[in-house]
Amino acid sequence: QKSMDNERTQSVLQDGYDLPVYGLDTGWFLYIHVPALCCIFLSLFCASAVIIASFRSQTRPFFSWMRSERFVVYLSMCDALFNVTHSMDHLQMVITKDHVYPEELCEFYSFFIGEFVSAQLLMTNVAAVNAFGLIYLQKQFKLGKYDWKLLLYTFGVPFVLSVCAVNFGYYGPSGSYCYFDGVKGAFANIFFTTVPMTVVLVINVVLYVMTWWKIHTESKRIKTMLGNEAQTIRASHKAAKLMSLFVTAFFVQWWALGIISVWQNFAVVPQQFFTVVVMFTNLGGVLNGIVYIIIKRRRDRNYSSKPLKSSSQMSADSGISNSTTNVSVIDTQI
Question: G-protein coupled receptors family 1 profile domain spans which residues (predicted)?
Answer without folding.
Answer: 47-292
